[in-house]
């Protein structure tokens, strides 16, 4: 609890960003030790943090600090991860794929977004989007109708749903086992400068980003740019060349994004994504490793660290999994088949 309080206090402290926070984590055994030895005055901010934590508890909202094991592992890898993440609902323990696009859409874009969200959901993949009107909304709705989980990332506090017209959709997301998340303190209202920051979380928490439909100046293109900077795969759904709704997506393809011509192509491009039905055939002694690698490719040291296993035992298990065709090793990185 103390580490969470200090993390929230850092959120309110000027001059403490993700870079400084990570430096303190790496150089001290705990944040409390770091604050003491670095002589950081948090007297004012800790009072605000205590108040914020009480309010979050009352609203049923979890505040997950960057130092927590519950913090999404992929999001930890980006350049400026949020110091804390506000979570209303539950973050699914399955792969995440972002589905984004413009607010103004065509019938084609809405149909594809809904169908794609449903397809991903039915294949045990969580759909991440921004709760905006248009493509985002239809991707969320498709995921819900596919009986799976979806995550909405906000450019406001999780207690300040925006747009208000999607309030009922936000409730459905939480009620069906998904989550509403944000890096912004409770009570934060939506503002123009918040949305690019929101977009880096959408791409950062996801294994890949799919842009369904986007005009030339769509915010979805910002999300795609963040995904590329973060080393994630970007897909774009082709559209009519004379449609203003598809100019951005078609340009992404021209610049090197993978064209998504068939939803099943995702499994070819992202080898670690597999249908959930495969899981039941994994031998019990391999399940922990397989489920970890199904979320993200990792090195043997990263696997050992996350599962608290010794290297010799892990090496033997990974070799057996390679023989069985469950995982493969490329350049020192393991991934599921």
From TrEMBL:
Protein family membership: Belongs to the DprA/Smf family.
Q: Which Pfam family, any one, appears in the UniProt record?
A: DNA_processg_A
Where do transmembrane segments lie in this chain? Answer: none
User: Where does the Smf/DprA SLOG domain start and stop, copy by copy?
Assistant: 64-270
* Keyword terms: Coiled coil
Q: Which PANTHER family match?
A: PROTEIN SMF
Q: Which residues form the DprA winged helix domain?
A: 289-332
BP GO annotations: DNA-mediated transformation
Q: Could you tell me which InterPro entries the record lists for this protein?
A: DprA, DprA_WH, DrpA_SLOG, WH-like_DNA-bd_sf, WH_DNA-bd_sf
Signal sequence residues: none
Protein name stated in the entry: DNA protecting protein DprA
Which parts of the chain are coiled coil? 25-59
Keyword Manganese listed? The answer is no
Q: Which SUPFAM superfamilies match?
A: MCP/YpsA-like, Winged helix' DNA-binding domain
């Amino acid at each position: 609890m103390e580490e969470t309080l200090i993390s929230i206090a850092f959120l309110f402290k000027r001059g403490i960003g993700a870079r400084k926070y990570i430096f303190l984590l790496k150089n001290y055994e705990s944040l409390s030790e770091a604050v003491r030895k670095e002589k950081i005055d948090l007297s004012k901010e800790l009072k605000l943090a205590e108040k914020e934590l009480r309010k979050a508890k009352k609203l049923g909202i979890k505040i997950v600090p960057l130092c927590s094991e519950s913090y999404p592992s992929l999001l930890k890898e980006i350049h400026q991860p949020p110091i804390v993440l506000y979570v209303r609902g539950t973050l699914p323990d399955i792969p995440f794929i972002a589905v984004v696009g413009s607010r103004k859409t065509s019938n084609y874009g809405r149909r594809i977004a809904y169908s794609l969200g449903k397809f991903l959901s039915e294949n045990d993949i969580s759909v991440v989007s921004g709760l905006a009107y248009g493509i985002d909304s239809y991707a969320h709705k498709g995921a819900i109708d596919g009986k799976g989980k979806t995550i909405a990332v906000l450019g406001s506090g999780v207690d300040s749903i925006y747009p208000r017209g999607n309030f009922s959709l936000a409730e459905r997301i939480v009620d069906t086992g998904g989550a509403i998340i944000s890096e912004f303190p409770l009570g934060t209202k939506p503002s123009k400068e918040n949305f690019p920051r929101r977009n880096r979380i959408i791409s950062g928490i996801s294994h890949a980003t799919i842009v369904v439909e986007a005009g030339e100046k769509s915010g979805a293109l910002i999300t795609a740019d963040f995904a590329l900077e973060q080393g994630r795969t970007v897909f774009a759904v082709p559209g009519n060349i004379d449609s203003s709704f598809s100019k951005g997506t078609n340009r992404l393809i021209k610049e090197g994004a993978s064209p998504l011509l068939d939803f099943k192509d995702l499994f070819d491009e992202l080898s670690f994504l597999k249908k959930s039905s495969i899981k039941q055939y994994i031998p019990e002694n391999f399940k922990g490793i397989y489920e970890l690698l199904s979320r993200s490719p990792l090195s043997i040291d990263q696997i050992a660290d996350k599962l608290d296993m010794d290297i010799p035992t892990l090496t033997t298990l990974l070799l057996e999994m390679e023989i069985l065709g469950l995982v493969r090793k490329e350049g020192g990185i393991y991934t599921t088949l």
